[in-house]
């Protein structure tokens, strides 16, 4: 039987976590996109472990790895039985890993020796459950990852080695697990001081308390085998902690001697087997935690009434990103968790976006609280989920991997030595130093800390630089007049590269006068109005209200 060392549900053959590219996601990006709720939903499926990796650690820019995971996720999404099986088995995988990696406490410890028996018990039960499950006709697997996993389980279960392991385990288990009591022999000197002690026998029954006086009065001298001449005492009762520990150590040592012929020969052989044959199984614990968490997130979104889809994975060189029916999953999760207070939560609105030859850089404008920031965050979150190998929050999508997501959002921790504006400029320069044609840049209200005239001039310079970089960009801004410069910026000589286009957050067409937001983002040029009138109305800053205030 071949050893299934390289079986993985996250990495295709030839790839490992060490050569699967790099993650384009970091904690700063997660914070800027307000996406922690998404990952919290993934991590809440299982009990939190202190050394548990954050899901973003599994990000990759390798197309083959992303496609491999998408296929595995599709199997889990289409087969609820498979999803529930892996979810139920994960705690056992964790137990198996802990048994293998824990410090066994030395060869002289009976408990440590018995841990190898427990390890085999968990291992054989896992293989049995998985084998029986995969034998069902209703389980249809399409992904290479799940097919390889199923084949490994089948090969192990049908091997002669596994059959012998089960048989040997059954014999060892019956010998060890059935021990309920021991008979201790003690030699005394002439003054009744114990001089020697040892285990005489082991038994499958427990001793019962007795009373020698009661036996004499009842004239019951018949030996009942497991009746003591005196009441049983709790081990350690009346002894100091040191003496109780010494007593237990003596008994433990004697037990070890009795069982050494079995355990000493069993443990090395079993450790050799588990080291080579079962390692792949407990290595899958983290991968299954990630996949089950990801699918649980997707199921929560579906339960909230919003779509998720398996995106088409497009080579990096094509720099593709098209999403129809895109939304921000954080909004959907918040509404699902607080249905009674849904009126206070932003509505889940579906939008579309397409980066193409006519627009790789978008200036996003519209009224305050019109959904611009939520939309920009939605694009970033969708790209993150794609590069984790998960489905994305949209009806349909075709996406290429990126090498990094860069965010330039307002920060509370601005450097006072340079001022907020100076800090914005420094952060932006650091982004430019790392940009490539395969980067995604998300900018929100950049340069809002300076005057409109200065901000517009600097924003134009930045946009020309972004054109030269070839990066995909969403430039969300309050500078509505900046969009009027799009044609001039695209035609500027000496700055060939990505083209700039415009996205606009719309007002509700039927209630435009009242400034009601539709949260729809369209690929269009903004109207002449900068929406200042609607903002002024919202805060009561109309001429009529102001005059009325003076009159009071």
pLDDT < 50 stretches = 103-108
Q: Mind telling me the C-alpha Rg?
A: 34 Å
Cα(first) to Cα(last) distance is: 92 Å
Helix content estimate: 40-55%
The main sheet orders its strands as: 8-9-10-6-11-12
Sheet having the most strands: 6 strands, mixed
Strand content: 5-15%
What is the helix/strand order? HHHHHHHEEHHEEHEEHEEHEHEHEEHH
Question: If helices are DSSP runs of H or I spanning 4 or more residues, what is the number of helices?
Answer: 16
Cα shape: elongated
Strand segment tally = 12
Kindly name the structural category. alpha/beta
Let me know the average pLDDT. Answer: 80
Describe this structure in words.
With 552 residues, the chain is α/β, with parallel strands linked by helices. The chain contains 16 helices and twelve strands. The protein has helices spanning 27-32, 36-43, 63-78, 80-101, 110-134, 144-157, 160-177, 212-217, 241-303, 329-337, 372-387, 419-432, 452-469, 486-490, 532-538, 543-551, and strands at 181-188, 194-203, 312-313, 321-326, 351-355, 361-365, 396-399, 404-408, 439-444, 472-476, 500-507, 517-522. A six-stranded mixed sheet has the order 8-9-10-6-11-12, with helices on both faces. The protein has a four-stranded mixed sheet with strand order 3-7-4-5. Helix 13 links the parallel strand 9 and strand 10 (472-476). Helix 3 crosses helix 4 and helix 5 (110-134) packs parallel to helix 9.
